[in-house]
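Progress against Task 2.4 (sequence-to-structure conversion) is shown through the following example record, which the project officer requested during the mid-term review.
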Amino acid sequence: MEVEEVLITFSESKDAMTCVQQQHMIEKNPLNVQKYDPNDPSQWEMDKVLVTGLNHVTTKDTLMNFLEPAAGVDLIELVRGVQRDAAIVVFAEKPGTGKYSGSSMA
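Structure tokens generated for the chain above:
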């Protein structure tokens, strides 16, 4: 399993700041360490949404036709899990930044 990102929580804020200010390496590879602020919307992964209440026969095409104009970006992936009425929808970019931006649904 390849992991690209991890989130580490410190019990003390000062320890987190010390960690961010230092350089870190694993097997001679530099690590990119940065502060994550959950209150900063620019850091949220807003290219993904959880959709619930789906009929088990709802297709990716059906969701694309409904969500793409509303979101303003292309839907690139639909991930269904064990819960049959829910799916994670992944867009090509954050909604409101794509080719449909500024358009409204009639």
